[in-house]
Amino acid sequence: MQRFLGPFIAGSFLFVAFLLGASGPAAAAWGAPASLAPLVRAVAPVVVGITVTQAPGTPARPGPAGSVTQAAGSGFIVSRDGMIVTNDHVIAGASRIMVTLNDGEQFPAKLAGADDLTDIAIIKITSPHPLPTAVWGNSADAEVGDWVLAAGNPFALGNSFTLGIISAEGRNIGDGPFDHFLQIDAPINPGNSGGPAFNMAGEVIGIDSAIVSPSGGSVGLGFAIPSNSARLIVAALIAHGEIPRGWLGISVADLPDGPGQGALITGVEPGGPAARAGLTAREIVVSVNGRAVAGASALTRAIASMAPGTKVRLGISENQHIFDLLVRIDRRPLQLGE
């Protein structure tokens, strides 16, 4: 499954073997074992393939009139009773979700929770027996140059495993307000979205979610949601089915000189929290509860991370005059902005 984000195409990916021409003891000297077979055997049972059927007329994946479309994705099991992590864009608009376990067993799945801002979703299957579960790792311990094993369901062929390294950390690719990806050298394979990225201890340190590709083919730039961000969202979705997000009811943009001190208000939703507080277009939000705002995405993150009903003190700049304004934020409607 793929999702186009300008030059960024979400879809997950496999990790290309990067052995620098080494093998055997030489490969081990670079930090990789001589064989990954034991690691693959250990983690394979928690990896699943996902097939999504989309009903006619669904905006997310339009097709010919009267037709249904199918797409493939990936996921991993996080509870013995069948909770599975995947990407929100894998299951968005699905009329039917089927999960295939590593041993070939298939089960229908139901959506248990989703958060479009972080592109994380939980689906649930009911198995007659307890299921193996993935172990979360600490993505803060991951370093550029560390080996990563990625798993997923490329082209709906079934579970596959490949090797790569962490190329960079903290990447913002314009995919949403919570961008902070691990960058991994990995070729794209449609169907790997939502699959796990494992460290060499077999712990999940990321959820494979996006790539850079001007043509749709692999150019070796892949991105994974770090586990330390993902696991908090996953826990909340399992417990509550959703993540209540704060909302100001404004549209914002970076200042003309680019991200910096503040976010320019470009529109105000009638009847929303900002409108009730008296905010208007062309004003600039420079701080939230005394903390400087570095741009439009920073403001969105700050507000969306707060619980609806919270009172927030905004620093507002108007005609080079700065004043404070207290605003009670509302719950963020689906698919809307700040």
Quick structural gist:
The chain has 338 residues and is mainly beta.
What does this structure look like?
Mean pLDDT is 83; it is low at 2-29. The strands form four sheets. The chain has a six-stranded antiparallel β-barrel with strand order 9-10-11-14-13-12. It has a six-stranded antiparallel beta barrel with strand order 3-4-5-8-7-6. Strands 16, 17, 18, 19, 20 and 21 form a six-stranded antiparallel beta sheet that branches. Among the domains are: 3-20 and 134-232, Thrombin, subunit H; 246-331, Pdz3 Domain (Roll), CATH 2.30.42.10. It is elongated. The protein contains six helices and 22 strands. Helices cover 13% and strands 37% of the residues.
CATH superfamily of the domain at 3-20 and 134-232: Trypsin-like serine proteases
What distance lies between the first and last C-alpha atoms, to the nearest angstrom?
A: 28 Å
Provide a count of the helices: 6
Percent helix: 10-25%
In what order do the strands lie side by side in the largest sheet? 9-10-11-14-13-12
- The CATH architecture assignment of the domain at 3-20 and 134-232 turns out to be Beta Barrel
The major pleated sheet works out as: 6 strands, antiparallel, barrel
Topology pattern, helix = H, strand = E:
EEHHEEEHEEEEEEEEEHEEEHEEHEEE
> What is the CATH topology classification name of the domain at 3-20 and 134-232?
Thrombin, subunit H
Low-confidence stretches: 2-29
How many β-strand runs?
22
- Kindly report the average pLDDT value: 83
Q: State the assembly state of the protein chains.
A: single chain
Q: Strand pairing plus helix content: what structural class?
A: mainly beta
CATH C-level name of the domain at 3-20 and 134-232 = Mainly Beta
Strand content: 35-45%
